[in-house]
Structure formats: C-alpha cells, structure tokens
Amino acid sequence: MPELIFPLDSTKRFPDQQIVGHNRWHPDIPAAVTVKPGDSFRVHCREWFDGDIHNDDSAEDILNAPMTKVHALSGPIAVEGARPGDLLIVDILDLGPLPQEDSGPLAGQGWGYTGIFAKSNGGSFLVEQFPDAYKAVWDFAGEKATSRHIPGVEFTGITHPGLMATAPSADLLAKWNSRERALIATDPDRLPPLALPPDPADAVLGTLAGDAFEQVAAEAARTAPPRENGGNMDIKNLTRGSRVFFPVFVAGANLSVGDLHFSQGDGEITFCGGIEMGGFLDLRVDILPGGMDTYGVNEHPIFMPGNTQPQYSEWLTFSGTSVTLDGEQRYLDSQLAYQRACLHAIAYLTKFGYSPEQAYLLLGAAPIEGRFSGVVDIPNSCATVYLPTAIFDFPITPSARGPVQIDPGIGAPHAAA
C-alpha cells in the first residue's frame, strides 16, 4: 500500500483533522504536504458535505445541505520542482470506500447517497420538473451498489474522484471572479443562482489564520464548477488506471482531490448525482517541464481514461431534441436535447412502477452514458441517454406482454422546498 500522506479521522469534522484541507480555491492556501516527482501515495477524502448527509429515510438533510461547506478537499499537495507552465502528470492507481470496520457510520463506509437538490438550494439539471429535494441511500457490496429506495436494480460502480485540480494563479483567480460576478449581475435574484461568488462563511483554508485568513476567504473561489485548473469536472470515466495532465499555475502545482463517487451517470444530472462517498485515493505524480506550451494545454486538463470500467454490452437508448416541453423550437440547443432525452428515459421507467423521482435518482447514480449525437442538423440537436439493461433484475425492453410491474418499495425520501 502506498504511504498515507493525508489521513482523516472519521470521528472528527473536516476542520478538526490533524491535517486540515480546504474548501475554496486560492493561490495563497499553503500546501498541506509535499511529495516528489515519481512518488506514489495514499490520500483519504471526506464526503463532500463532511458528514451532514445521513443514512436514513428523510431528505431534510438534502433540503438543508450547507452549500457553503463544499467541497471538503484533501490538499493542497505540493510537488517538488513543479513550476508554472509545466504539466502535472497524475496517475490514479486505486480508489474506493474505506472498510466499514475501520471507519464508522459516515458515507463511504459501506454506503453512499444520491440527492436531487431543491430549487431553493442549488437545483438540478431538471430543476423545473423536479423542484423539491429527494434522496436515495445506496449500500455497497464489493464493487456493486443497491438501494432500498430504488428496488430492482444492482450495478457495478465506476468509482472515481469527482474533483481533482491544481491551484489557480492570482491572475486566473481574478479572471474567474470577474466573469462569474458579471454573469450573476445579469439576474442577481435567480433561483437557482447563475453562479456562486466568494463567501467567507464556512471557509476552510488549511493552516491560514488571522488577517491572512480573512483576506483569502473574501477572495477565494467556490469549488462547485469545473474551471481551467480542472476542479469539479465529475467525469465518471476518470477512474482507476487513468492518467491526467493538469496545467500548473503556481510553484509546486498544489494538487487537491475530493468528492469521491462510488458511481455516476454521465452529467451527474441530479446535481448531487453520483453516489457520494468518502474514501481513499492512491496516486502517483510526475512533471512534464514546459508541457503547457509544448502541447498547447494552456488551460483545462486532458486525460487518458482507465480500462477497468464495468463492461455493459446491451443498452436501451432514449433520444431528445432541442424542443421545449411546451413546443418551442430552439436552435441546436444540445443542453435542452439532453434534458429531453433524460425526461424520456424517466417517463419510460415510470411505466414499470417507479416514481419519476426514483427514475431520476437512478439516472444520476447508475453508469448511464450520455452523448451529443447530432449537433449540426438545424434546427434540432439530438442527444441520447444509454441505459444498461443488465442493471435491472427484470426485463425493461419493449415487448408484446407490456411492462413488468415492480414493487417500488418505500420510495425516495422527499422534502419540499
């Protein structure tokens, strides 16, 4: 096992750990640990809400999830010799939940969760159709997940970190804040908001204290979106065996990781759409000097996916085009087309006895594949959702006998916004 350089105690909150991570982006957040090029090491990661979501049959915790706390990131991890303009090479050697006997009752220790976020607290990809909070808890058995809230399915997870990134430079941070404030100003009262500005509330900034903490907390960017440094990309295929090339913007690169998912469908469409968990991550790092200019990777990482993802070979595919639910034609709106494909899949699954919310949660958690299938045929983009049929313990393809009716169980816990 690689050396554990970032341990976490599951009985303690994120700010109370022996080594304190962070939940904001800023170049002045000090490195928590330092490694050398070629080193392999293990990092523990907290679940993104630091234990505020519970293994129960209520969605009140999703409704009231404290967005100012996210994400609980392990790092920054400085790499000796890394300089701005380099590419940081990160190999994902292994990852997974912590063993139950070592960890207690927190997410990632035998279980995880998927949540539909309420419109009043972040919303989701289908927020207008699903404005309230819902939750599904998943139990882990080896590499497979099942849920008492969504019966009749079992699937192998594509375990991955939702968030990996290097630290931004001061100039890059200023660019983020400027463009996101400009976007917010176009509709400052929108729900859900157009972006999340810097907010000192609940900021965790490693070892910073006093005036330095106050200054950084006022400027530091929130971790919710992906940006040029990587960040919350939520790419389900970024799993074990993957190699990532990150742009380096500050000395040491200052790599941070977190937001582990046991599984996820393409798009993480419920916002809290993967199966969220804490766990461990084994990494190896190296440096490609001057790699940003050499390969033109001046912003946004590139990666080589691993080859250990589940092998599903039969799919039922749903399509959608860029026409709104009330019949308005949009021009090549691929985002809308993917929403319509998801809604078609949800409507189909309700014919078997699932509630719309159960079907939506399933699409967020299971390893569905989403594709922009046609983006040039005016006026309609075409997007598709590929649903693996083998995850169900009953037939879901159309037949003369009609859909099998299942017992929907206790359903997905609900909390109205």
Q: What shape does the CA trace take?
A: globular
The CATH class designation of the largest domain is Mainly Beta
* Whole-number count of domains: 2
Share in β-strands:
25-35%
Please provide the ordered H/E string of secondary-structure elements. EEEHEEEEEEEHHEEEEEEHEEHHEEE
Number of helices: 6
- Uncertain runs: none
Largest sheet: 6 strands, mixed
Distance between the termini: 45 Å
CATH architecture of the largest domain: Sandwich
CATH superfamily of the largest domain: Acetamidase/Formamidase-like domains
Average of pLDDT: 96
Q: Structural class from helices and strands? A: alpha+beta
What is the number of E strands?
A: 21
Q: Enter the CATH topology name of the largest domain.
A: Jelly Rolls
Helical content stands at 10-25%
Q: Which value, in Å, is the CA radius of gyration? A: 21 Å
Strand order of the biggest β-sheet: 1-3-16-5-13-17
Characterize the structure shown.
The protein is of the alpha+beta class and 417 residues long. It folds into two domains: 3-304, Sandwich (Jelly Rolls), CATH 2.60.120; 315-410, Endonuclease I-creI, CATH 3.10.28. Helices cover 15% and strands 27% of the residues. The chain has six helices and 21 strands. The strands form four sheets. It has a six-stranded mixed β-sheet with strand order 1-3-16-5-13-17, with no helix packed on it. It starts with a strand and ends with a strand.
